[in-house]
Each structure stands twice: as C-alpha cells, then as structure tokens.
Amino acid sequence: MAKIKLTKNELKKQKDALKMFSRYLPTLQLKKQQLQAEIRKVEEREAAVRSQKESLEEDFRKWIAVFGEDVGLDETLLVLEATDVGRGNIAGVDIPIFQGASFQPVSYDLWAKPLWVDKAVVELQRLMLLDLELRVLEEQRRLLAVELRTTTQRVNLFEKVKIPETRGNIKKISIYLGDQQTAAVVRGKISKRGLERAAS
Question: With CB atoms counted within 10 Å of each terminal CB, which end of the chain scores lower, N or C?
C-alpha cells in the first residue's frame, strides 16, 4: 500500500477515487455476467454442432460400409473454395461468426463412379461445414474466455483491493484530520486560559 498524505486534498482525492471505483464496479460485474452467459451459449451451440457432426459421421460410416467399394472419395471430389467468416461484437469482444462456405464444382466421370457418390459429396460438404463452424465456435469461446478472465481480474481488483484500500485511506485521513482539529481546539482553549491568567 502506497504511503498517503494526511491532508484534506488527499481526503478529497480518495473520496473521488472511491466514487469512481464504485461507479465502474457494477459495469464490470454486468460485463462479467454477460460474458459468462455468452460463453454458455457458445458451449451449448458447440455441443449441438459436435453432436450433429458425430451423428452425421456415424450415419456416413454405416452408409459407406453398405456400399463398401473404394471410389476415391478422398480425391478431388470436394474442394473448399472459400470460408465466409464475419465479425461480431459481444460485450466489447471482437469475435468471428461463421456464415458459411462455398465449394468448387467438381466434375467426374459419371460412368466410372457409382450413383451414390453424388450423395456422398453432399454429405461430405455438410460434414465439412459442421467442422468449419466448430472451429469458429472454439475460437469464439477462447476469445470470450480470455476477456472473461481479464474482466474477472478487474472485478476482483476493485472489490477486494481498490475499494477496501480507498475506504481504509479515507478512514485513516478522517481520523487524523479529526484528531488535528480536536488538538487545535484544545490548544486554542489552553491559549485562551493562558491569556486570561496573564491578563488578570
């Protein structure tokens, strides 16, 4: 704790600081609550997308197993052209927002590939879209968690350090100034009695 001056100016400065801390603290607490709520939403969406992806992968494995032939799905049947990720702002945090992706049209020999390859390509696209969305959601959660940690540290700093310290400083200065005022009154009375004795 820094040494404080025991003066009226310092008392005013400490009172002003206490007002400022008390004014900012509710805003920080509100931001903390908002970030916690947003992280929960992102985690719920992430769990839903992950579940949807796992379900699709399981269906896809069963479906491919039925047709069991190797048709080279890992070739160039699915080429990601562009990912569309916008920007958003939650509680002052700039976050990415998944808006979709586009795939290059791929041509292949219809006589050489089985009929179900078209459906497989569509399903692979859905799977890749879910995977891309999942990555963006993970980044959202990471960014929000970083901001939540910083905001929580600030709330704790204000609640547990700055406000109690400032209140203690105000109390210390007030007691000192009160003692000084009492001492001045006592000195004044002693001086007055001394002057009265000297006059008589």
Answer: C
